[in-house]
Specification:
Layout lengths: L5 H22 L24 E2 L6 E5 L2 E7 L9 H4 L6 E7 L21 E2 L8 E9 L1 H4 L13 E7 L53 E4 L6 E4 L8 H38 L6 H35 L16
Parallel strand pairs: 1-5
Antiparallel strand pairs: 2-3, 3-4, 4-6, 6-7, 8-9
Helix pairs in contact: 4-5
Length: 334
């Protein structure tokens, strides 16, 4: 395998020497009156390992130096493994924008030259290719990108768009909407907008945010009777306003309990004071006033502190002007 990289390493070494030579001239304040050929400086052509997609008669390629657009049938991998191009499926065309074919293999060196020194020919690989955007009329988008099923399952035989790279950014200067379901277009019949197969859409298809491409449940200790508890990895989001209302209602329930305990403390303090004033009850004459003072100090005073802390908690978390308001001011969901 090491021999396969010989030509590629020669190219990299030559390009490195050209760049170093040019930089040394800059550092020595020596004139640089031309851009060295094959250096890549200022847009000059750079000789690189040209990785080719294994050809298929029904596909057309536009591109240069391992950055290309492929037009043709849906082809997520090899011709044998890609079922729609293998079966000659109609209405299964795709546009595949890809850079860095097989970039991550061989510890990031990419594919090697073959033994004859020709550019390597490879199949599409949605895991090893550096970055791509694929738009397909008919595809198995979840299978192609090896995505967790989630609650929507593995969708097959639908129009799909996939975007994959080391990092992906979606930027909207005036906002971003992520919307599922049909739009109220006119003139689309009784069913309204359908999917690409003409099938009726459900009212509100879900949106799933899956970190780590993993939806397997977690098994942890701490369930009923100390048994293993099953915790779902994929869980629904909470709605901020409903959560706020729920917590405020819980706060009202706490207030009712607070009032009951507070009144109990007042009654107890009053009763203890009455016992202390009764001349015939010699035993309680000394303990009743002490008990009344303890109720006032330990119960009534503590309850006032609890009421104050609860009010501060509501302001911090449940009011829009609170600095830890639980609702997002920028992101909303249905």
């Amino acid at each position: 395998m090491a021999d396969y990289f010989k030509e590629g390493e020669k190219l990299e070494e030559r390009a490195k020497n050209i760049l170093q030579s040019t930089y040394r001239r800059f550092e020595a304040n020596r004139p640089v009156n031309m851009i060295p050929p094959d250096s890549g400086l200022y847009g000059a052509y750079t000789q690189d390992v040209e990785v080719q997609l294994k050809p298929a008669a029904s596909q057309q390629r536009v591109g240069i130096n391992n950055a290309e657009i492929i037009f043709g049938p849906d082809r997520p991998s090899g011709l044998q493994e890609s079922k729609y191009i293998r079966k000659g499926a109609l209405r299964a065309k795709s546009i595949d924008l890809v850079v860095g074919r097989m970039s991550s293999i061989n510890n990031g060196k990419g594919p090697a030259y073959n033994r004859s020194g020709d550019s390597p020919e490879v199949d599409n690989h949605f895991g090893a290719d550096a970055a791509r955007i694929v738009i397909s009329h008919l595809t198995d988008i979840d299978t192609n990108f090896q995505l967790a099923d989630g609650k929507t399952g593995n969708i097959k035989g639908r129009a799909g768009i996939g975007i994959k790279a080391d990092v992906v950014r979606i930027i909207g200067r005036e906002g971003i909407k992520i919307v599922t379901g049909k739009a109220p277009f006119k003139g689309m019949g009784l069913k309204g907008e359908t999917n690409s197969r003409g099938t009726r859409l459900v009212p509100a298809p879900p949106i799933e945010l899956i970190a780590g491409n993993n939806t397997r449940p977690n098994f942890v200790l701490g369930g009923p009777l100390g048994l293993i508890d099953v915790v779902s990895t994929l869980q629904p989001l909470v709605k901020g306003e409903n959560t706020t209302y729920a917590l405020k209602e819980l706060g009202n329930i706490v207030d009712e309990i607070w009032s009951a305990v507070f009144n109990l403390g007042l009654v107890s303090a009053a009763f203890n004071s009455t016992l202390g004033a009764e001349p015939l009850l010699v035993i309680t004459k000394g303990t009743a006033p002490q008990a009344a003072n303890q109720v006032l100090d330990s119960v009534i005073n503590s309850l006032w502190h609890t009421r104050f802390n609860k009010s501060i908690w509501e302001i911090q978390y449940l009011e829009e002007f609170g600095h830890r308001y639980i609702c997002s001011r920028n992101v909303t969901t249905t």
